[in-house]
Every structure is written in structure tokens, then in C-alpha cells.
Amino acid sequence: MDSIPEVSALLGYMYGGLENVPLPSTIPSGSGVVQGCLALLTRETPAQVLIEQIGLRKYEQLRSLYQHSSLLNLWYSWELKNVLQAITEEHIPVMVLKGADIATTLYRRTELRHYSDVDLMVQPEKLAATIAVFERLGYHYHQEYRFETVSRQRAAFVYVKEVAAGYLVFEIHTSPHSNEMGVSFDTAQLWERARPITIEGIDVCGMGMEDLLVYLCWHFRSHSFSRLIWLYDITMVLLRCSDSIDWNEVGDIARKQGLMSTVYYCIVWCQQAFHISLPEHVHIERFAPPAFIQRLITHFVGDDLTLLLQVGAHHERKLLQRLMVDNRPALSLVLMRAIFPSPTHLGRLYMEHSHLPVRLFWLYYPLHPLFMLQAYLRNRSHRKKLTRTQLRSV
């Protein structure tokens, strides 16, 4: 098995030096600090080394954030136990998704994987009973997006409770989020393939490892590859479970979901960024998209995916998100949805800060392509200026 990868050098590469990594004044609710890798960075890098790289003042700020984040995660551990115990006592099957599952079952120490919320999935007919449990435990509904009030595709409900260390956020799913790229998951199959796990002493369900790998790759892509911790999570699945995973089943799941290319490029990304290797019997090349899609990706974003981790490569990451498809029809669909998004996505894009009534979201349909063109031209102009600056400095 490969040694556990480190993140400090990669974070320095992403920001042009650890001293350039932005640090908020406190732990913001619902967002990752230091690409979600705060605990990993603090634990793997000696204090003196960090002080030499970022200075004493910034190190003290980093240490304060780490202590706050660690305290909040202790609250999460305690509250997760109470929540899962209360739900299971009501005989409600519950599946723990993403971070809380991975931290417990894949990381060598749970405290190395901090998370800013907990995602749980229950069956639709158990949603009302689950919400009643949360309300009994002192949680209240939080409207994450203004458009939620009229959305017909609700699959998740956010419940929040304030504690001494900040806010605890639980997201109750009836299915994983669908998105504007046309990806949706077969929830019934997820339940059938679920694996038993134990979290905080409570027996619950987690996604089957094959589903978890595909889901984590999709989640990373769905959020435009925006946090290093999500790539690290995929790496941990590969390091811990690549020998035991049924790769034929991974292929079947990914093919049905239209995520073969997504799995392929995310695994290649793990190999390039963290220098891991896969067992000889794993032939990741069979997940690769047709040559036409590969040429498009190479032309627009290149072959070295590590370059896309740089903070200034947002445009390239967004392009890769759109191009990471399995075939030409899927590419056409993704491009069409980019120009004419679903009502839910359009509402999230424009109604959060609009003064219009939410029900008038459709007025943004003719404006959306113009906004896309404006963003493209602005980004193109910025890149030209950046290139000229780089040339003058040579």
C-alpha cells in the first residue's frame, strides 16, 4: 500500500506558497478552511516548519482556526451520536453520506477529517419522522436557497442548531442531489448496495464502496473541483479499498450514471497529485472516454490535472467540469443545459440576490446566455492581460 499522501506541498503549489493561503478570522459556517485540509496540514507539518514558511503571526491565526475547528468537530461527534441514536430508536433506516462516513471508516484517525456539516439520507416515507426527531433535539429548518420555496426537485432539507462552538448543520436527504449536468442517482439501488458501518457506537448504513467511489468523484466534479479535501477523500478510498472494490461493479454503476469519464479523470488526478498507484488488476483505462472527448480536454485544459488545482485556474476547472462526459450526445446535453439550465439551477444562480418575486425566475432565461458570454469575454480579456504581464516579466 502507498504511504499516506501529504497536502502541505500541494497547498503551497496551489497558492504559490503557504504564506499566500487565505485565512478567515474565524471558522465560517458551511465552508472549508485551507481547502478543507486544515487538520491534515496542522498535523503533518511541525510547528517550527510552518512558522518558518508563513511567519509567527499567521501561524498563530492558523493554530487558532485549527483549535476552533477541532472543538466544533468534537461537538459534531457528540451530536452525531445523539442524532443517530434518536433516529435508530424510531426504527428509521439511515445512511451517513460523505464526510462523516469517510472520517470514521477510511482516515487513520477520525480527527484528521474535519467536516462542516453532516449529510444523512433516509427513505422519502421516513422524512417527516426524521424531521420530527431533529426538531425534538432542538434543530430548526434553515432555508439554504431562496429558490427552495418553489423548487419541485427538493431532495435535501437543512437543519441547524447553535452550540457554544458555532453552528451544527445537518442535511437530510431523500436522495443525492441531482444537478444541471443531467446526473441523478438510483436511490433504491443505493439502499440495496449499502454497507453496514458503525459511527460513534451506532450501527447505521453507508454507501457501498463502489457507490461511494463513484459518488465522491461526481461530488468533486459537481462542485467544480473546488476543494482539495474532496480529491484527498477519493485518494483515501483508493488507498484503503482498491484491492477489495469490485471494479466491474464500479464500471456498471458509472456507465449507468454517465460517469465513466468522471471516475477516470478523478482517479488520474489522484495519481498525478498524490503519486499513488493502483493494483495491477485495476485497469483504469477502460473508464476513459472516447478519443474525441480526450482530445477536447487535452486541448482546453491540458494533460496535467495538477495544474488545475492552482487557485487561478477556476475557468479551466469549470471547462473540465463541462467536458468530463462519456460521449458526444452527453457533451451536447451538458452544453445545452449550460445555456438553458433547469429551473432549479437558474433559480440558484439568479434569485438569491434578485429583488424579483421568486416565481418570476423564468425572466432570466433569455438573459442567462448573455451573462455567460459576458463572463467568457471578461475571462478572456483577463487571461490576455495576465499573459502579457508574464511575458514582460521574462
Largest sheet, spatial ordering of strands: 3-4-5-2-1-7-6
Secondary structure class reads alpha/beta
Round the mean pLDDT to the nearest integer and report it. Answer: 87
Instruction: Report how far the terminal alpha carbons are from each other.
Output: 43 Å
What level of helicity do the residues show?
Answer: 40-55%
Unreliable segments of 5+ consecutive residues: 386-394
Can you write the helix and strand succession as a string?
A: HHHHEHEHEEEHEEHHHHHHHHH
Total strands = 7
The CATH architecture term is 2-Layer Sandwich
How many domains? The number is: 1
Can you tell me about this structure?
The chain is α/β, with parallel strands linked by helices and 394 residues long. It has a single domain (8-393), classed as Beta Polymerase, domain 2 (2-Layer Sandwich). The chain has helices spanning 8-15, 38-44, 47-54, 56-89, 99-105, 127-136, 187-192, 209-222, 228-241, 247-257, 260-274, 291-301, 314-323, 328-339, 343-350, 368-393, and strands spanning 95-97, 118-121, 140-142, 156-163, 166-173, 195-199, 202-206. It has a 7-stranded mixed β-sheet. Strand 6 (195-199) and strand 7 form a beta hairpin. The radius of gyration is 21 Å and the shape is globular.
List the helices and strands and how they pair.
Blueprint: H1 8-15, H2 38-44, H3 47-54, H4 56-89, E1 95-97, H5 99-105, E2 118-121, H6 127-136, E3 140-142, E4 156-163, E5 166-173, H7 187-192, E6 195-199, E7 202-206, H8 209-222, H9 228-241, H10 247-257, H11 260-274, H12 291-301, H13 314-323, H14 328-339, H15 343-350, H16 368-393
Parallel strand pairs: 1-7, 2-5
Antiparallel strand pairs: 1-2, 3-4, 4-5, 6-7
Helix pairs in contact: 3-4, 8-9, 8-10, 8-11, 9-11, 10-11, 12-13
